[in-house]
Amino acid sequence: MPQIVVEGLVKTFQVAERTPGLWGAVRGLARRTYRTVRALDGVSFAIERGELVGYIGPNGAGKSTTVKTLAGILVPDAGRCEVAGRVPWTQRIAHVAEIGVVFGQRTQLWWDLPVVESFELLRDIYRVPQARYERARDTMIALLDLEALLDVPVRQLSLGQRMRCDLAAALLHAPAILFLDEPTIGLDAVSKLAVRDFIKRLNRDEGVTVILTTHDMDDIEALCTRVMVIASGKILSDGTLTELRARVTRERWLTVDLVDAAAAIDEADATVIRRDGHRVCLAFDPQVVAPAELIRRVTSHHAIRDLFVENPPIEAVVARLYAAHGEQ
Amino acid sequence: MAEARTGALRPYMAIVSVRFRMLLQYRSAAIAGLFTQVVFGLVLIMIYEAFYRSAPAAAQPMTFPQLASYVWLGQALLAMLPWNLDAEVRTMVRTGAVAYELCRPIDLYGLWYARAVAQRTAPTILRAAPMAVLATVGMPLLGLGEWRLTPPASLAAGAGFAVALGCALALGCAISTLINISLMWTVAADGIVIVTVTLVSFLSGMLIPLPLFPEWAQAALRWLPFAGLVDLPFRIYTGHIAIGGLVPVLARQLGWTIALVVLGRWLIGRGMRRIVVQGG
Question: Which of A206, A310, B53, B139 is the S-S candidate for B148 at Cβ 3.0 to 4.6 Å?
Fold first, then answer.
């Protein structure tokens, strides 16, 4: 019996349209036209207890909408959803008492209170018995290195510090499920590593089910065995990361900085996909030409200042996935 | 059983406590307010004295000492009136962040009501004690003994006043919360504040005690909720409402409080659906 079941979720938003200019504003007083945005268009998936699932997609794909629906904040227009046997929006209070949510772009702590007072307030809001609270609090302080931050008002924390505190706060009531909505957004490298490490340990040692929405492919590669891709409100892919990559494209990109900006590049087995002054980006299939071989060819034909090889960014992968889906 | 009850209210008591402690820090505002309110009280009393001197004493609905006490009580407890918005709630609603409050296992109306309780009591506590001292002891010292705040008309009046005041607080918080809930429909917060301040000051008897209103107006005003905020408790204190008449007065206060709470809970449900439908 999966812990989280979602079937055919549909959610549309009405966005008011405004014709530009003065006449548009006047007309807008009398008659409002609305554009319908399908944020979720039949989303379905099931998650077992203890999984660490990545949920990725371009901006506006419907990731946050899904998380908010699962958290019980949004009510979908259609579809079925059950989390730990409850429907999130009809049994909201009982439901949210058992989940933890971290929204990367917004803190759940109180702005003008010291961190530890926020924790204590949460303890009371979630009605956690004192002994259990102290155990959870001390564990979080140790794992996330919060000792020095306890008496600092939340508004004085840096983004990385605040995120660590938000994570701790979300877990004080020992939820079985944790929703993380872009937790590493805006964080520096050190903080990102700390957050990732913490999430991995949480999932592995405590068996907390984690749903992680993110733009950051490195987050996914570091943490998730299972990845769901959503675009325009539809789930396009649900499987492992390798499966996803293999399914869309084996392609890799070689970017070189030429000494001579005007040089023409024409390599067999590689396509120029972008050209920007000195910088040229070549797409190639590593199974047709090995990266080392392509580098050797390019550098022997041209003088190069710098080069790097990368996977296409996830947005490109997903865009391609969507294009392929659209053609079906 | 008591354990379960405390458990149920625990989140809301914590919210009141935290916000209360935070609001207690605003001491300089309280001191400034104190000064203004003493001046305002003196001015009001002076105006009433002028009216009383110019009219035959027998015709007045309230004796002058009762009136003086009424004015000072009003100044001391001014912060208890629902005259201002909760700035945080306003921002929350405007940015749509209020939806995130639903992530907590608490009732949104209860949360806002708890905040209102803190907002109505903390500033009052800061001002009421010094005001009461000034009005009781300070006035005679200034040679204005006739204008001072007199003790309650009787022990029973004092006790009745305490009960009515508690109910007035509950009523004020219900009105306060309703005002905050109305923000879910309009961004014109300033307009709402102006309208509410006017309505509340005038219709509650804060500016002019209700007995001094024309007869035809008094009947209507008695039935509005606002009378329960100021007029009713203060007139119990001064003995203007006899002890025998306490029960109907308290019943009316309580009735309005319950009605406004029920209305508030229903409205907040509608407001949340509206906001949640437009979510981000």
Answer: B139
